[in-house]
């Protein structure tokens, strides 16, 4: 299915990542945004506040981030493709209702323009320290999808992809931008609506009375939704529930439900996980990076080549689910991974776990507030190549 032309601002523009994200949401047929202003994500909400009414959508500024995420879940069940946008402290406040969205299988998108933390931290400066929180921030067993754009163009493209993945797997999907990508301005090309693929909401064809909101159609991993107001009686709860959506407080019901919530992502990792892989054949060292750090690492890689070091690259486009299988395969063929991050060590733990001692894993940490000095990355590449 192609995008609704009303939401597609076709053409070439100089947008920052925040504006590009907003335009991607509109092209992905988002028609509801609830949020609360927070630097450095506010420009996404400002853009949506201007543009949503023009395409028949709704923007609402909530009293806080807890209410924002709750409104997004409610709008999803009301039939809208919905999203919210925030940064560090607001992301923390959204975690309870993120878990509710996972439990009720509500398709929605959460954009986090990361800044330096913890607490209020560095409101206007870059960080990449929310990646583990994106995966483990709410309690219980569940799975999410998280994407990490490295340019304004990707902010546009990946936000559309986020909405499509949310609909396909009925799961919260996060776009984990960082402040530099959110605020850098570059050329963004928005194609015509007929060239933009969107995944439509899958509504049940069963009549009221026969429909069960959590019954899985044969050959599928997620149940169909309904159009509210058409006679369906729906019970939605964050409690462990059966196919009717009614609470059932048993270990057997918990096992069936939660296992499926996890498996619908884990069993489809090969279809979900996206990587940008470069120069891996014969590489001595592989740099694993994401977001703005991928771009910063390029100079270090060029300098390493001058020293005769063959450096490959793996850019994590999909942070979660983590591409475990591919990292394990690469680890068998190289001397070491180098992982630059604007935090003190998060995704490096996943790389090290998957490398499983087959090669070295070296972190290039940075606590935030600026990007790396590329020469710090170069030093670790040289060290790993010995």
Give an account of the 3D structure.
The protein is α/β, with parallel strands linked by helices and 386 residues long. The protein is built from 14 helices and 15 strands. The protein has helices at residues 17-27, 42-51, 65-77, 88-93, 95-104, 131-136, 152-169, 179-183, 251-266, 269-272, 292-306, 324-331, 347-355, 374-385, and strands at residues 11-16, 32-35, 58-61, 82-86, 108-116, 122-126, 145-147, 172-178, 185-190, 275-278, 285-289, 311-316, 318-320, 336-340, 360-364. β7, α7 (152-169) and β8 form a beta-alpha-beta unit. α3 packs parallel to α5 and α11 (292-306) crosses α14. The chain is globular and about 70 Å long.
Shape: globular
Instruction: Please estimate the helix content.
Output: 25-40%
Q: Beta-strand percentage?
A: 15-25%
Tally the beta strands: 15
CATH class of the largest domain: Alpha Beta
User: Major β-sheet, in short?
Assistant: 8 strands, mixed
Unreliable spans are none
- Number of helices, where a helix is a run of at least 4 consecutive DSSP H or I residues: 14
What's the average pLDDT? Answer: 96
CA-based gyration radius:
21 Å
CATH fold type of the largest domain: Rossmann fold
Quickly count the domains: 2
What is the subunit arrangement here? single chain
Give the helix/strand class.
alpha/beta
Question: Can you tell me the CATH architecture of the largest domain?
Answer: 3-Layer(aba) Sandwich
């Amino acid at each position: 299915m192609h995008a609704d032309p009303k939401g597609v601002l076709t053409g070439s523009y100089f947008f920052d990542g925040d504006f590009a994200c907003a335009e991607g949401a509109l092209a992905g047929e988002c028609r509801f945004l609830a949020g609360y202003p927070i630097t450095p994500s506010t420009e996404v909400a400002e853009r949506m506040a201007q543009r949503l009414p023009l395409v028949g959508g709704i923007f609402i500024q909530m009293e806080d981030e807890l209410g924002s995420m709750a409104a997004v879940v409610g709008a999803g069940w009301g039939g809208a493709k919905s999203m919210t946008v925030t940064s560090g402290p607001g992301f923390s406040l959204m975690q309870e209702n993120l878990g509710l969205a996972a439990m009720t299988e509500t398709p929605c998108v959460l954009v986090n323009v990361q800044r330096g933390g913890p607490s209020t931290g560095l409101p206007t400066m870059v960080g990449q320290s929310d990646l583990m929180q994106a995966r483990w921030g709410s309690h219980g067993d569940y799975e999410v999808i998280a994407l990490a754009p490295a340019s304004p163009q990707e902010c546009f493209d990946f936000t559309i992809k986020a909405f499509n993945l949310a609909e396909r797997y009925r799961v919260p999907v996060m776009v984990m931008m960082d402040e530099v990508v959110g605020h850098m301005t570059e050329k963004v090309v928005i194609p015509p609506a007929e060239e933009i693929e969107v995944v439509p909401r899958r509504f049940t064809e069963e009549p009221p009375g026969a429909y069960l909101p959590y019954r899985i159609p044969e050959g599928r991993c997620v149940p169909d939704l309904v159009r509210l107001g058409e006679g369906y009686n729906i019970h939605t709860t964050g409690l462990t529930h059966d196919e009717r959506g009614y609470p059932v407080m048993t270990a057997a019901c918990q096992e069936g439900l939660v296992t499926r919530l996890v498996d619908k992502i884990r069993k489809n990792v090969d279809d979900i996980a996206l990587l940008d892989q470069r120069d891996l054949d014969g590489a001595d060292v592989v740099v694993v990076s994401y977001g703005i750090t991928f771009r910063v690492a390029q100079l270090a890689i060029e300098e390493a080549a001058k020293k005769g070091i063959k450096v490959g690259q793996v850019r994590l486009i999909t942070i979660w689910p983590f591409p475990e299988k591919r990292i394990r395969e690469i680890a068998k063929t190289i001397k070491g991974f180098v992982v630059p991050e604007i935090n003190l060590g998060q995704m490096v733990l996943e790389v090290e776990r998957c490398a499983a001692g087959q090669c070295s894993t070296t972190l290039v940490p940075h606590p935030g507030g600026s990007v790396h000095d590329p020469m710090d990355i170069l030093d670790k590449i040289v060290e790993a190549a010995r």
